[in-house]
Amino acid sequence: MLDDLDAVSGEAIDAAAALVLESVEAGGIVHVAGAGHSLAMVFETFYRAGGLAAVRPIWDPGVFPLDDAVRSTRVEREAGIGRAVVREAAPAPPDVAVVFSTSGRNPYPVEVAAECRARGVPVIAVTSARASRGAAARTRTPLAGHAEIVLDTRVPPGDVLHPAVEPRTAAVSTILAAYAWSRVLAALDDLAAARGADPPRWTSANVPGGDETNAALLARYRHRVPELTGDE
User: Fold this and answer.
1) β-strand pairing of 160-162 with 169-171
2) Is 232's pLDDT higher than 80?
3) The pTM is what?
4) Residue 200: its H or E element
5) DSSP code of 139?
6) 2 backbone dihedrals φ, ψ, rounded to 5°
7) Cα 230 from chain centroid?
8) 98 - beta bridge partners?
9) Are 143 and 112 in contact (CB under 8 A)?
10) 139-153 confidence digits (pLDDT tens)
């Protein structure tokens, strides 16, 4: 499946890397969104060793599943919440948005993408065309329909792949989306090196010098990414 993702989304990965790098070099912020288990990908992009520092998570507490799983499903399907989240974050060019949603058919991620696009902020959708076609359509258009760039993760309908003859377990959406994002970061690094650029990246706090490097990035971005320090 990783090979399949490479074959289908390789060009889109390069395009996403170029778009993100151009945004960050222009002083933009990468706004990242997801709901339910796609929030795992928001964690993966935010304040992560080796990850971009110019990343802001945008989310509504209602889509967080760890304290009320049933509520998170309900909220993801409610109209209006995704747009409200974007209005609160107020992204604007040269920002860019990355929206993770395997099916891309629930109102929350679709509204986040649509509202960002309406504000002139380009959207990168990390989704699965196969899963989207097999999902219940709760929106008129899927997430991919509001994105400038689509990274197709190739996740099968229902997310599971074992056993092959009758899949019922072993979900792969997080693995494939995380791989796609790592590919974007690697492509971005190669492109930055070719341009002589040095994007702001977090260093592991568990290696020598990590705290000092990260302190400088916190000072640089804490006022634009309030989630870094809990500032209002």
Assistant:
1) antiparallel
2) no
3) 0.96
4) none
5) S
6) -65, -40
7) 21
8) 32, 124
9) no
10) 889 999 999 999 999
HSE, CB side, 13 Å, CA atoms: give it for residue 157. 8
Per-residue pLDDT band for 14 (boundaries 50, 70, 90) equals: very high
Q: How far from 67 is each of 61, 105, 192, 205, CA to CA, in Å?
A: 10, 24, 40, 28
70: exposed, middle or buried (C-beta count within 10 Å: 0-12, 13-18, 19+)?
exposed
**Is residue 224 helix, strand or coil?**
coil
| Residue of 58, 85, 180, 170 whose CA lies nearest to 127 | 180
Q: How many other C-beta atoms are found inside a 10 Å radius of the C-beta of residue 204?
A: 14
Q: Which residues of 170-199 are buried (b: 16+ CB within 10 A; e: fewer)?
A: ebbbbebbbbbbebbbebbbebbeeeeeeb
CA angle 41, 42, 45 (to 5 degrees): 85
Q: Are 62 and 36 in contact (CB under 8 A)?
A: no
131 and 102 in contact (C-beta within 8 Å)?
yes
Comparing 230 with 14, which gets the higher pLDDT? 14
The confidence band for 7, taking pLDDT boundaries of 50, 70 and 90, is very high
Query: Can you tell me the distance from the alpha carbon of 194 to that of 11, in angstroms, rounded to the nearest whole number?
Result: 18
Distance set, CA 139 to CA 17, 108, 143 (Å): 28, 10, 9
Q: Answer whether residue 135 shows pLDDT above 90.
A: no
Beta strand segments in 16-153, E: 30-33, 55-57, 96-100, 123-127, 149-152
Give tens-digit pLDDT for 20-70: 999 999 999 999 999 999 999 999 999 999 999 999 999 999 999 999 999
